[in-house]
Amino acid sequence: MSAVYDCSRPESRAEGLAAAASAVRSSRLVVLPTDTVYGIGADAFDAGAVRALLRAKHRGPDMPVGVLVGSWSTVDGLVLGMPPQARALVEAFWPGDLSIVLPHAPSLQWDLGTTRGTVMLRMPLHPVALELLRDVGPMAVSSANVSGQPPAATAQEAQEQLGDSVSVYLDGGPSGEPVPSTIVDLTGSEPVLLREGSVSAQAVSEVLGVPVAPRS
């Protein structure tokens, strides 16, 4: 049976964040508000929980899950290296609507799907999400919807699609326009725009000082 917590009320928010943290540490799934759309999340280092997340979305490992972090410093322990381009984007857009793909640290014991040695990272600009992430650490998070269905802009929309596959729903109110994050791949010799979302390609290019082209 799922529990829903209204994070607009301080007492309910505190109770909900505690319940969500307990769920994540117990290999269960939570839905949380972010600055783009609602996300469904699990402990990034719990392979069983990540598989449960993919099952809840009716999606396979060929569509791997990204990772949300609660601080800039967390990234250094997750990636093989932090190139200057990545640091520039982090300083310009985090917390915010930009996801960065980098080679992950080979020592990490996680299974986010078929990532081919990479990880997509983002630090969301949402107080509820940040508080949970700073408590439990990096989380594997995907949009809170069944694959092929519209992304959830409210906790209720997420619950209608995901039901009891999720233990805790944190209701942070409507997310606004359901625009996804922009994704920039920094695993090659040149930056590649995998998806243009809230952050424009022009804004990314200005920070990096080079044109950022879509993947051909």
From TrEMBL:
<comment type="similarity">
    <text>Belongs to the SUA5 family.</text>
</comment>
<dbReference type="Pfam" id="PF01300">
    <property type="entry name" value="Sua5_yciO_yrdC"/>
</dbReference>
<keyword id="KW-0819">tRNA processing</keyword>
<dbReference type="GO" id="GO:0000049">
    <property type="term" value="F:tRNA binding"/>
</dbReference>
<dbReference type="GO" id="GO:0003725">
    <property type="term" value="F:double-stranded RNA binding"/>
</dbReference>
<dbReference type="GO" id="GO:0008033">
    <property type="term" value="P:tRNA processing"/>
</dbReference>
<dbReference type="GO" id="GO:0061710">
    <property type="term" value="F:L-threonylcarbamoyladenylate synthase"/>
</dbReference>
<keyword id="KW-0067">ATP-binding</keyword>
<dbReference type="GO" id="GO:0005524">
    <property type="term" value="F:ATP binding"/>
</dbReference>
<keyword id="KW-0963">Cytoplasm</keyword>
<protein>
    <recommendedName>
        <fullName>L-threonylcarbamoyladenylate synthase</fullName>
        <ecNumber>2.7.7.87</ecNumber>
    </recommendedName>
</protein>
<keyword id="KW-0808">Transferase</keyword>
<keyword id="KW-0548">Nucleotidyltransferase</keyword>
<dbReference type="InterPro" id="IPR017945">
    <property type="entry name" value="DHBP_synth_RibB-like_a/b_dom"/>
</dbReference>
<dbReference type="InterPro" id="IPR050156">
    <property type="entry name" value="TC-AMP_synthase_SUA5"/>
</dbReference>
<dbReference type="InterPro" id="IPR006070">
    <property type="entry name" value="Sua5-like_dom"/>
</dbReference>
<feature type="domain" description="YrdC-like">
    <location>
        <begin position="14"/>
        <end position="199"/>
    </location>
</feature>
<dbReference type="GO" id="GO:0005737">
    <property type="term" value="C:cytoplasm"/>
</dbReference>
<dbReference type="GO" id="GO:0006450">
    <property type="term" value="P:regulation of translational fidelity"/>
</dbReference>
<keyword id="KW-0547">Nucleotide-binding</keyword>
